[in-house]
Amino acid sequence: MKVSEAKIIDIPKIEDRRGNLSVVEEYNQIPFKISRAYWVYDVPGGESRGGHAHKKLKQLIIALSGSFTVTLDDGTERRTFLLNHPYQGLVIETGIWRTLDDFSSGAVCLVLASEVYEPEDYIYDYEEFLKYKGVKD
């Protein structure tokens, strides 16, 4: 995948005077099977999350509360997305380096993943990532 193909998707928002509700279903709003869900919260000011890529795993990232930025990198192009609505999510395909920054106070980041945790699926070294993408020898 190329960063230029990355997109924020709209998640159905059911408005109600008692409070709004949003829902996602695998293969419906999310273009993959959901095998794992996790959330990141209480990120100290100035800290960064992510800093890796995946060989197989796909993700949908949603700002359930607050805001943060997600920077995607395919080895040749970078693109930054602001996530700040619980009714929108960023789909990240395989082979994309991601970094999450600029967490607002109280931000909660939900990640829906296509695979269970497998350490061998992660690429943590950026130079290794560039080699994996064929950008660098």
Automatic annotation (TrEMBL):
CDD domains: cupin_QdtA-like. Residues 5-133 form the Sugar 3,4-ketoisomerase QdtA cupin domain. It comes from the Bacteria. It holds the Pfam family FdtA. InterPro entries: QdtA_cupin_dom, RmlC-like_jellyroll, RmlC_Cupin_sf. Gene3D superfamilies: Jelly Rolls (2.60.120.10). This is WxcM domain-containing protein. It comes from Prevotella pectinovora.
